[in-house]
Amino acid sequence: MKLWKKWLTTLVASLSLCVAPVAIASAASTAQILLYGAATMALAKQQLLQMDNNNQKQMLANTQAKTGVVDNEAYSDRLENIQRNLVATGLIKRNYDVYANPSKELNAFETIGGVISVNKGMLDALNDDELAFTMCHEMQHGEKRHAINGVLKSIGISTLIDVSLGGNADVLDILLGSVAVNYIDNEFVTMDQEKQADATGFNVFKNTAYNVGGAASSMQYVYEQYGELWQEGFKRVISPNNHPQMSSRIEKLAGRMTLWSGNRVQVGGNTVYVNAKPVVTPAAAGTYSSRRRAFLVAGNLARATHDVYGEATKDDKVVTEAMNKKQPSWNVASRGNDVYVNDLRIMTCADGDDQPAIVKNIQSALEAKPAMLSKKEIQKQNKAWTQKYGYKKDKKEKNA
């Protein structure tokens, strides 16, 4: 008999051998069920941890067999290059196998074994800055072992008990492996786990050379295609929300970018502010909406101010003193269609962007007194933008 089977049997026998009145026996029966449940969940979690740590190649093969793989070196090289840059931060502790799958949907996932897959649709839609944050987010699911909890949540406790009491550990392994592969089709990541992956993912992201505005802009693009991904009213009872509201995720990621800038750079609606002064409302260009571009422009400006002032410690206090204690010198200039601040490229102007005005505005704002708009004012502008330009479900359905 397997060791774990003996443990479960002994556990139940210790309860069954008790002689007690009917009421107490009934209570003991309930306790049996609870103990069986706790024991089988602990056993399953132990098995999943072993799979997560030791079965990476097998899980990669199984997951690729389910999703398919994009046979294109350009996609593989792009993912490997971003992965190297993220690992170089020293903040990624696990090893991950990353590959592209052929789905055209905007999605990526991490599953048991440290396997990360990014949909071709996501790779085609996002730039490297945005894709890097997506991978940071998925790696944080792996760092926190979120997939294990998701798989456990997707298996009924009664199923685990039945398999465990059958005495065949191999059957349990097969069950867990099968559910782990099918887990990618389900939404068992909790809302708290998604929030945690966004937060800790940004902490990795800000330590790279990528544009920190790519975090909010990636979510902005997803919002533009799918809306809030949020159920309201009775629909929420039938299909509970596992992911935070998209607008909330965008706002929080934009807030983290602002904090990193020393609280000097903000985005309200689709306008970029420096020291509470509007510097540019970018024109839409190609697949990039005005707001998506605003986050990317703000991310580059955030790097310029971060390099001088560092990161703010409170979300409502502007850093006023330069890290080197010296008054900074700002040189904003045009080179072709590009706008630079002290040799850092901030944006490439598109049709509809007033480049001379943008240069003048940024120069004036960087030299202005340290300031920031209140959180309430930013939220007001975001709400106004959403009401005017936000996701229109009917429009999307007509174009489908």
TrEMBL record:
Cofactor note: Binds 1 zinc ion per subunit.
Residues spanning the signal sequence: 1-25
Alphabetized InterPro entries for the sequence: Mito/Outer_Membr_Metalloprot, Peptidase_M48
Domain Peptidase M48: residue ranges: 82-255
Superkingdom, taxonomy of origin: Bacteria
UniProt keyword annotations, A-Z: Hydrolase, Metal-binding, Metalloprotease, Protease, Signal, Zinc
Source organism: Megasphaera intestinihominis
Span list, region Disordered: 374-400
Name under which the protein is recorded: M48 family metallopeptidase
Family statement: Belongs to the peptidase M48 family.
Keyword Transmembrane helix: no
